[in-house]
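Hey,
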Amino acid sequence: MLEKQYDVIVVGAGHAGCEAALAAARLGACTLLLTMNLDLIAQMPCNPSIGGPAKGHLVREIDALGGEMGRNTDRTFIQIRMLNLSKGPAVRAPRAQTDKRLYSLAMKHALERTANLDVAQALTERLLVRDDCVEGVVTKVGQVYRCQAVVLTTGTFLNGRILTGEYSYPAGRAGEFPAVGLSSCLRELGFTLGRLQTNTPPRVDARTIDFSQTVSQFGSETPLYFSFESRAEADPLILDPKLWLNSIYPIAQQTEWRLQLPCYLVHTNTETHRIVRENLHRSPIAAGFIAGVGPRYCPSIEEKIVHFPHKSSHQLFLEPEGFATGEVYVQGCFTSLPEDVQLALLRTIPALANARIMRAGYAVEYDFVPPTQISASLETKRISGLFHAGQINGTSGYEEAAAQGLLAGINAARKVQGKEPIILRRDQAYIGVLIDDIVTKEVTEPYRLFTSRAEHRLLLRHDNADLRLSPLGHELGLISAERHRQVEQKRQQVTDELRRLANTWLSPSAQVNDVMHNFGLEPLTKDVGALQLLRRPEVDYDLIAALSPSPAGLLPEAIEQVIIEAKYAGYIEKQQLEVERMRRLEEWRIPPELDYAQITGLRNEALEKLTRFRPATVGQAARIQGVNPADISILLIHLRRSAS
């Protein structure tokens, strides 16, 4: 067969694969993206939504580094809102419901117009490896593609099996072939594989829903976007959504800036739960017919009923899958029950009494490669030039996959170019937290990122992702000079305004107190600094602007940073001090060839874990479960002696 030569080959065109291919190509690597079906690029087989706590942070970080997910979401969402507005800034996060067909089409368009990137339809059967270095891939029909680096983003396709009720069949997703040969190839290369599972809910026909018996949840009234480059004048990629909406959905939300669709809230009831309980024996999840472990934080409806018997109801969200389709995703009703049971349980809910299922829910079980076998660069330890990203690493979620894909694509290109890999720290990005977690912890269930996993989450807010990561994106060549200039302008405005407020004093004059009164606040009784006044919980920047307006017009996003930096200054300073205290351990490199068996005094468990995980730094070693502070002290003593 004809052989073709590339620098980087990406296998799989899900969210990880798309970001990996775009990043590698944009960094100048001649890149090939292989996918089983060109019509299903960036497919959303589960909920067509992007963002939420921690996940929204990831998307903002992907965008700040020059990735595509944020921009693509902004082009195609049907609803967007900010979650957790009543809570602190560390846990606030944007979440969007996208039009899943438009999202896929827009991403395909982005791939096809990118220089240095070819996209082709093929089923990858095996890897070409010589002397523990990857050299290319071979497709199902024998086509050979040569390269210097491969990024595997196989999703749920490795030896995938779908289960619904009493039936099961080989598939990576409903209607798509599994990747059996590639799974066997990885085993032959010496990789240890595990088994995980996830499940999907039924989709129902919008025309059979009684929306009058639901609670509508609307999107943001004010312009809100994931990408720092998006603008209020940006339009969705559909010519006239109203043409479709009139015949499918009863209402839409026409804001001044964008047409949006509501989502709808309903609840299960005791009758729903009775039907589930009586049919548990027909669920492969509840009956234990699935070997793979499922996601603890996204349980099936069967697991909810079993594990929370005291609850009389559970929330379900009816989420439209696009402007031009009547398919509605029943969020919260993940299941592998037979279709007749799915229909029966849905019809116990008043709004769904006449529901018709368009697609039944199902479970999918698949192979993954436990990420103890990769380094923090996402390159495998066993095969040089082979990178893994997404669900192959045991993670779940489009956002987690895209974040890994971006870093894997960057590092694959840099590997080919003879450059050092990019590794993000835990105090630098949620992406750093995600990757550090999976390479230092046992993955026994699909990993999902939460804000609670980040010990420095007040530093890692979604609103400052550009300030944290765009300089790196620009240095890499993924962020334009103009965008970098805008980020630095924002940074300078924040610095200048905080300095100005710190040096501005307000006296209890009649004019000042009139303004205070107009804002519903108590008058001043003594001189107070403007920055000190802004730190009061009841004071917003509008008051400061009225009392002492900035001589330079501030960007709205700069004002947001000023408010947060002022009100949370003490907490931010405390976290920054903690970061500095840990920095020494985080930067203390461990020689990759270190023989832990030669270190006297290590406990057997620590010896086994350190040998298996092979952490890159002392900081990573300290986070490995089973390695205690005494073991780290012994390791430090050994490293000091070896260095002297």
